[in-house]
Each structure stands twice: as structure tokens, then as C-alpha cells.
Design a protein that fits this description.
- The chain has helices at 2-24, 33-42, 44-62, 67-75, 79-87, 103-117, 123-142, 150-160.
- It has 162 residues and is mainly α.
- The longest helix is centred in the N-terminal third of the chain and has 23 residues, at 2-24.
- The radius of gyration is 20 Å and the shape is globular.
- Residues 16-25 have low confidence and may be disordered.
């Protein structure tokens, strides 16, 4: 019995130590929207790399979130929610009942970004892909309103394809 109690105490202490170290190593999950879109205007390849980092950040942030927590963030018009919905809706599975309905915009966004990353894509193809993505964002998200992060994202994308 003493051995079992000792093992329990040791395992409990190890767990508490692990939890404390994870909290100490917690990553800053904020997005500097100004820096992101300033980068987009200046250096597309760096912007593209930042978007990969943001995907990881959003997956990390939304993963432990409950459905009510997500709903609260959605109702507060959180730009991170809108970015995830329009770009990586699969990370919202189980939190956003409508995540599958956002796949159209995310597919169009991926297609546009792939064309922008391509060295052989024509300007016309990029414009058409951007128009399709912009139309999807308008129909499913903004309805003509300036809603972050789409307001600055679409302006940046338009400047990039000129």
C-alpha cells in the first residue's frame, strides 16, 4: 500500500511539473494584423510564410476551445475566427457547425495563394482567382461591409496582382 501511495505521489508531482513547464512555455497567440498586411504589401513570399505560421497558431488556439467558447468569439466578430473560417475551416471542426460551408472560400483562397506563389501563373489567372475568392468572401462573410481581416486582406491581394 505504501509503494502504491508513493507512486501516486511521484506521478502527481511529475504531472504538476509538466503542467507548470507547459504554461511557462505558452506561446503568444496574438496576431499583429498591421504587421501581417504591411508584409503582404511589401513581400508576398514572407507573407505566405507568415500565413503558414498563423495557421499553426490558430490551430493551437482553437484546438482546446469548447463550442460555446468558439461561439462567443464568433459573436464578438473576432477576426481570427473569420480568418480560420475562410482559410482553414477544418481546424474549426466540432466547434463551428457550419465549418463545411466555408470550404468553398478556403479552396478559392488556397488556389489564389498557390497562383501567387507560382512563378508561371499569369496575371490574368491571378486576377480571376482573386475575383472568385473576393466574391465568395462577399457572399459568405462581408456582404459589402468592411470586416477585419477581409478589409485589408483583399486590398493587399488586389495590390499584389496589379
Amino acid at each position: 500500500m505504501k509503494t502504491l501511495l508513493r507512486k501516486f505521489i511521484v506521478l502527481t508531482l511529475l504531472s504538476l511539473t509538466s503542467i507548470a513547464s507547459v504554461r511557462a512555455e505558452a506561446r503568444d497567440l496574438t496576431i499583429d494584423w498591421n504587421a501581417l498586411y504591411d508584409t503582404c504589401h511589401v513581400d508576398w513570399s514572407q507573407y505566405s510564410r507568415k500565413m503558414i505560421d498563423i495557421h499553426d497558431l490558430l490551430a493551437e488556439e482553437f484546438s482546446p476551445m469548447t463550442k460555446p467558447q468558439f461561439t462567443d468569439r464568433f459573436l464578438q466578430d473576432d477576426p481570427k475566427v473569420f480568418l480560420a473560417q475562410s482559410t482553414w475551416p477544418e481546424i474549426l471542426r466540432g466547434k463551428d457547425d457550419f465549418w463545411k460551408s466555408h470550404k468553398e472560400c478556403s479552396s478559392l483562397h488556397r488556389e489564389f495563394r498557390a497562383l501567387m506563389d507560382s512563378t508561371v501563373a499569369t496575371t490574368q489567372a491571378k486576377r480571376e482567382a482573386l475575383e472568385a475568392f473576393g466574391d465568395c468572401i462577399h457572399d459568405k462573410f462581408t456582404r459589402g461591409q468592411n470586416i477585419p481581416p477581409f478589409d485589408r486582406m483583399l486590398v493587399c491581394y488586389q495590390n499584389q496582382v496589379k
